Protein 1
Amino acid sequence: MQRRMKGAALMLAVCAVALLMGWHFFSGTHYDMVSGTAPGVVSGDGWAVSEDGILEYQIATPQYNISLSWIDGNSTVSLVRFDSRMTLMSALLRIPLNRTNAHGNGNSNESIPGIVLLPGATVSKEAEQGLARHLADLGYASITLDQRNLGGIDPQGDLQMFLKGEEPTEHKMVYDALAGAEILRRQPEVDPERIIYAGESNGGRFAIIASALDDACRGVLAISTCGYGTDLRIASAGGDVDKQAARFYRSIDPESYLNLIPPRPLVMIHSRNDTVIPYQLAEQTYCLGLQPKRMHSVGCSRHGFCPEMEDALKEELARMT
């Protein structure tokens, strides 16, 4: 576990440096799209980015297949493969055997809530099963994605794709989460009207964006994460900002989507002693959110979910579902 978190911390640090370096595009040379002058909406096959930098997707249930399940503790686990934006994706579907929900009610015929679980950078779907197993013990089904590049991001490379009119990988990662939710909704044990997005670290960023775009979800649980402060950086740059670059950076910043989450709740859980993302950065993101929202702080000295977050996790999941 310690090796996993160190690896995640290293990847997150590299990604943060890459993102900050990318801001040199905000001044100097202006980059036009392939079509010439910048249109009001940048779009492609089934996706678009508004002038304000808001990502839009046409969501449909992807083609998918589910393997035979095996028993792991108090749940069954199946391998899911599905097509998403021209890529074959992999996920683990976990269904509790004991249909007892967070309210303590149990009924083997009752449908249960589902969670789209997005791991942090460098963390595989298998490595995230500790939390998924715990969620199953609480009565929640989950689908845990192997994110593209194992959750690693390349903001500069994605910016160049965007400037060429191509769909950036980070946008596709949001779509992957939305597709995972559609698969989860179609499982007979799962209540399609009680879907939550949850993520740790970088996965929390994608969970926030996906929840904002999925009007049918019940909310988002973001653990040990924060936004990028894009609008603050744009404001500090004055008028020396490339509009297309600004549009792209807004489109990958969860803070750009916070006003789209209500009336669903935004819930953040963060340690005051987080070893990767300082608590103050999470607070800044939280302050930009609109009601209903809730922030829980704990004192563990690690990044990601820790036992001290247990009470907040149970409380918030029960409230959302």
Protein 2
Amino acid sequence: MNIKELIVYTQQPKLYEPGNAVMWTDPYISKQLLECHINPDTDTASRSNDKINLVIDWIDLQLKSKKVSILDLGCGPGLYTEKLAKRGHSVTGVDFSGTSIEYAKSKTISNNSNITYYCKNYLDINFKECFDVTIMIYLDFCVLTPPERTIVLDNIYRSLKKDGLFIFDVINSKNIEEKILKNSWEVCKKGFWRNSPYIVLNKGYHFEENKVLLNQHIVLSENEEIKTYHFWSTYYEYEKMKTIVEERKFKNIKSFNNVLPETDIWTGDNISFYMLTKALTVTTLLSRFLLEGESKILQADAKITATASRNGRRNHIRKYASHKSWRVR
């Protein structure tokens, strides 16, 4: 083992510095993640089934039981999409993990669900006014860097219809010190990170000035390969969130705590749920005004043309009738 190299890896990274490996697309780890996702009794990769049901109930309450079109970003294996579809909503799911999306698609077949899935990074989506609601649940919004956050908010804004809603949840500052990953290490014959012997070093960092947490996992394999996995999470308070989303043209910013009963530092008022409404920009309003004006002009032109056509036909008939000595009223 190269100890000097390991010392370099264990130094505090720069803010938002990526690791040298990606968990979601790793063929082996993505399968372990899927098993965590679909375990209904744990909160490891997804919330437990009882908590998911509470979130779905709360979302339906905000929708006042209307049946709407919903885009689920970071849908994973479709735990929320399936439940939303069963309640009569038209649902589309997007996720970066091919393993999760393949599982979700298989469930649509076995459950006869009418759900559309895309294996795609939500930084790259390009829907235009397709959905009444977009959701991003289980703290996905927190992992975005500021530039990514801007891109995603703009993508979501573009995807929503007039007065569409964006619903999501984030970490807040309550009990923030307890939310920092504790330093630990583990030696395994095989496990979550590898199908062969490995050592994993886990360490948490708090970039307090930036309100950012980092969970760092350094995995050392038998062949001395070192892989680092960095999971960044920004935590938010209402005023900061309000400023961010209003800059991206959202309005009616509402925050909700205690959507989930408090059982640990990841439930209750340790987590804030937000609901935003798409605000129409001056450009959009002007464009719609011009389109409506153009539509009215076209309708008026059509009426004039139709009237002229009818009058022309009538005049033609009168002339023909006069010529034939017919009387036309």
Protein 3
Amino acid sequence: MFPVICKIGPIDFPAYLVTVAIIAGTGIAVLFVMACLGRIKREVITTVLFWVLFLAVAAMILILTPITIYSYGLMLALAVVICTSMLVSEAGRKGIKADNILDLVFWTVVGGIVGARIFYILLNYQVFIDHPYEMIMIQKGGLAWQGGLIFGGMTGASLVKRRKLFLPKVLDLCAPYLALGQSIGRIGCFLNGCCYGKEVAGGVYFPVHDAYLHPTQLYLTAGLLMIFIVLKRYQESSTIPGLVFASYLILTSVLRFGVEFYRADHDIIFFGLSVFQFVSVGILLFAFGFAYVMLIKHSNPEDSL
């Protein structure tokens, strides 16, 4: 499809200063618009400053070397920016400091990407034995959601515990945006041509595979977007902590299990199922167990304080 969007750089120092000025100007414009809307708050200012500083520092790379913008990496970055901004805004309304959310997002994303890559490498180790340098080239695709969920969840839970926040409440807050982030990220998979489906008449033509295939990436994008909407509605009525997150695990596991039947990039191992379907079943069982524990614990109000 369109694995490479464009190539930028290298640039000289004056051009870097212009780039920083554009980034800063964009940040000021965002703050001005928010002020006009009467929504200027500390959380909004913190979020805008965070991204202005991050992009300004990241732009320094262009002085040293040209950068290739890959569709997969671009959509992954957009997912983080969009979901982080929405999450910080909602957290502020629920009394959670923006600093805690930004730290949580950063370490969860780092842990999630590392875990997703490790899991993907383990499942496709034969490819990486022949091409070991490909292990670090995540901009071209190759992240396994299940590994990201496990490693990212462990990293995020550790931070939440250190900050003495109520973990089920934070999980419920983040759950819809996990689904939204995945939905956006899958567009990157579609543009990159990875995570592809089986051949089918009337499917989408993928030049990289020279075939008409099930656009399984878009199936997941649409399904995860629906899950985001459902979870946002459920957030408004849920009174038992942890159940929104459990619902996220259940719905995403069922979705992935079903779409996997149309995928062509995974080997079948037992009973006509792929390894990702078995992992999805494991996550599904964990989700039901977690929901049961939350239900039992909530029956004693003193335990949920």
Protein 4
Amino acid sequence: MERNNLLINLKDIHFSYPGPRKVFEGLNFQLRDGERVGLIGPNGSGKTTLFQIIMGLIKPSSGVVELFGQPMKDEKDFRRMRLKIGLLFQDPDDQLFSPTVLEDVAFGPLNQGKSVEEAKGIARETLDSLGLKGFEDRVTHKLSGGEKRLVSLATVLAMRPRVLLLDEPTTGLDMETTERLVDILNGLELSYIFISHDMDFILQTTDRVYGMVKGKIVSEEEAVPHTHYHVHGFGRLPHSHSKAQGIPLGEAGHNESDNAGVANGGGEPGMKRTIKMRQMEKNQKGTVRKVSASGDMGRRIREMGLVPGVEIQIQGRAPLKDPVAVKIKDYVLTLRNDEASFIFVEVDD
């Protein structure tokens, strides 16, 4: 692909929601043909708002939005460009609405003017390319969270976009599905922008990483030591790691004193690793670093108090497939093994 072909060009964008805080103050951003960009930043920094501005779902108070070399002036302009830009929502339930998988994936091509047979053919081809052959007649709302995510991606790819915008594509995915998504995305001949807190995912699927800082998009080449005891760019921004590989996984609550302590060699920490809760041994202690479950399961886990930063101890391990007993402070919880698979805990190595 020709990399100097400008696909998205945002110039001096200003935007704020009702209230005193400004979201964007003179934001500039460009995406060229063939580029794969990761975007990281704290919650509320405007990452999703950026996608909404690109898609014309909200209008900046000032600034210029150009897509494929054309200035976007009104809804008519954006409507034409939405055929070229595929947006994957953060929650797949917001993207899937038809009774069956085939109907959902064929919906986009039908809206592009394809015949019913053409649309179904494109849908089947797209599902097959994502390893979802045989899903055509599956009931959409009965799919697992990971399956919904992949089917949502299929609905976007079936429209043959030139650019993908993906909002937190790994949210709620287990490790196996995340790795499958990495393989799929690396095999696409598309330009794309990912919003994610998962630094491992970003580094495996993009060739450039930007940060959202104080209403602007910035590039940081410097590798910053931080509390995972490893270094990479944007170490000061909140993020997580989906793969252990010697790197503890979890939300990075970075601060300058942490950075200074590690950088200056003060207080060499003990070795840590991050594992799934279901892999922990009896009486083993650890700190919850990430809950990747979504939907009802995710809510149940969080309502029990199993959130990042909480210290736990395995009270007892029952045989495989039996509940896992977990002690938090002075009370004991019981979880199913499948629930414990979505909870990642940092333990001593």
